[in-house]
Amino acid sequence: MTGQASLRARLVARDERALVELIEAATPWVLGVVLGMLRDQDEAEEVTAEVFATAWDRVGTLGDEYQELMPWLLRVARNRAIDRLRRRSRLRRKAARFQAYEVATSAPVPFREPDESAQPGWHVHRSVHAALATLPEEQRVVIRLAYFSGFTHSEIAQHLGVPMGTVKTRLRLAFDKLRTALAPIRDWVP
Questions:
Q1: Could you identify which of 13, 22, 44, 125 might form a hypothetical disulfide with 34, taking C-beta atoms 3.0 to 4.6 angstroms apart as the criterion?
Q2: CB 48 within 8 A of CB 34
């Protein structure tokens, strides 16, 4: 069995020492290819690490056409570097579009105070928030988390560090108070 075949067999058998040997032997070659393409040392090192992670994950799936690991590793390195170059290009295009949009829309828009009375349901909105303001803080917090942030009961309990039963009790007490406070607008709510 040749040295490369032996190394490959040990990698397939998940021998971590074989991975260390592969990294020590192939890093100068892989890093050289990637650095030559990317021209950025940090990014080249990241890609090199990705190449060896890929080798570790996929060496067992390689076909017989890859009896030697180095050509395959260099192909993986080249493909990963091309992916990075494409990502850079996309980011540059997005940044250019954003900058063009920003320049086109940079005219200041004057602030206008919203006229709530022109919006349907403005008085319901005002009444609900006034009723919420009268609740004790711990009840107001669970109402806001449940109905304004979309948290589940278990998420609220975890977020606040309280038992789920406490969350349910606080919600029930809050609903009892809100039901009374909002009774005058019941006909306005669909």
A1: 44
A2: yes
> Which amino acid is located at 106 in the chain?
S
Rounded to 5°, the CA angle 160-146-124 comes to 135
Distance of alpha carbon 2 from alpha carbon 4, whole angstroms? 5
For residue 28, how far is the Cα from the chain centroid? 33
How do the pLDDT tens digits run along the chain, 190 residues long? 456 678 888 988 999 999 999 999 999 999 999 999 999 999 999 999 999 999 999 888 877 666 678 888 999 999 999 999 999 888 888 888 877 776 666 555 565 655 555 555 566 677 778 888 899 999 988 888 887 777 788 888 998 999 999 999 999 999 888 888 877 776 555 4
CA–CA gap between residue 112 and residue 118 (Å, rounded): 13
Q: How many other β-carbons are positioned within 10 Å of the β-carbon of residue 45? A: 15
Segment (H or E) for 165: helix 164-181
Q: How far apart are CA 6 and CA 69, in angstroms?
A: 11
Q: Give yes or no for a contact between 55 and 11, defined as CB atoms under 8 angstroms apart.
A: yes
**Which run of H or of E encompasses 10?**
helix 3-12
